C-alpha cells in the first residue's frame, strides 16, 4: 500500500514533466532555407545600378502542436522573415569587412521588416503566392559608393551555389584565413569561406 501511495504522489509530477517537454517541442517546424538568386549577375556594377535578388520557400510547414505530421499552410508570414548584410570589404587584420548601411533597397515583392532593437542588416518579409504554395520576395539593392562589396545572409540561407559569385574579389581582402569578419551592433559576426555569398564591385 505504501508503494502504491508513493506512486500516486509522484505521478502528477511525472506527468507535468512530460507535458512540459511536449510544450517545449510545440510549434511549427523551421521553414526550408531560402536560396537567393541574383537575376543580373556581374562582376562590376555602376553606381546606383540595381542588383535584383529573388527567393522563395514552401509555405507548408508541420505543426508539432498537432498529432498529424502533414504540412499545413502557414499564414503568418513573419515566420518566413529573411535578411542580408551588405558588407564593404577592407583588408584590416581584425575585421575585414564593415556593414554598409547606405544602400538603397527597393521591393517588387515583399516589404521591409523593422526590429525594435539594433539591427544593421536589411530584413524583410515575403508575400504568399496566389496559389498559396510558396512565400517569395524580390528586391533590388543599389550602392552608390565605389568599392568592393559582399552580400551575406543574416540568417542560415545562401546565394545559389550554381551561380558565379565573383569570389575572386575577396582574394585581396582574405586576411583572416578564409573568414569574413564584421561587427554589427557591438557583436562580431563570422562567415567562413566564399560559398553562399555574393561579391561585387561598384565603380
UniProtKB/TrEMBL annotation:
Protein name in the entry: Uncharacterized protein
Organism: Algibacter aquimarinus
Native organism taxonomy: Bacteria, Pseudomonadati, Bacteroidota, Flavobacteriia, Flavobacteriales
Amino acid at each position: 500500500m505504501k508503494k502504491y501511495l508513493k506512486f500516486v504522489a509522484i505521478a502528477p509530477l511525472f506527468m507535468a514533466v512530460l507535458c512540459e517537454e511536449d510544450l517545449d517541442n510545440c510549434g511549427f517546424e523551421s521553414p526550408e532555407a531560402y536560396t537567393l538568386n541574383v537575376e543580373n549577375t556581374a562582376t562590376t556594377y555602376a553606381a546606383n545600378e540595381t542588383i535584383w535578388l529573388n527567393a522563395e520557400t514552401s509555405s507548408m510547414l508541420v505543426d508539432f502542436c498537432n498529432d498529424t505530421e502533414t504540412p499545413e499552410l502557414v499564414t503568418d508570414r513573419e515566420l518566413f522573415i529573411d535578411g542580408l548584410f551588405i558588407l564593404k570589404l577592407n583588408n584590416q587584420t581584425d575585421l575585414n569587412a564593415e556593414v554598409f548601411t547606405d544602400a538603397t533597397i527597393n521591393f517588387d515583392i515583399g516589404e521591409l521588416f523593422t526590429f525594435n532593437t539594433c539591427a544593421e542588416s536589411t530584413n524583410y518579409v515575403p508575400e504568399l503566392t496566389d496559389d498559396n504554395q510558396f512565400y517569395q520576395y524580390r528586391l533590388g539593392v543599389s550602392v552608390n559608393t565605389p568599392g568592393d562589396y559582399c552580400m551575406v545572409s543574416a540568417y542560415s540561407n545562401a546565394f545559389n551555389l550554381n551561380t558565379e559569385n565573383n569570389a575572386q574579389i575577396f582574394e585581396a581582402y582574405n586576411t583572416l584565413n578564409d573568414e569574413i569578419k564584421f561587427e554589427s551592433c557591438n557583436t562580431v559576426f563570422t562567415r567562413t569561406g566564399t560559398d553562399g555569398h555574393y561579391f561585387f564591385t561598384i565603380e
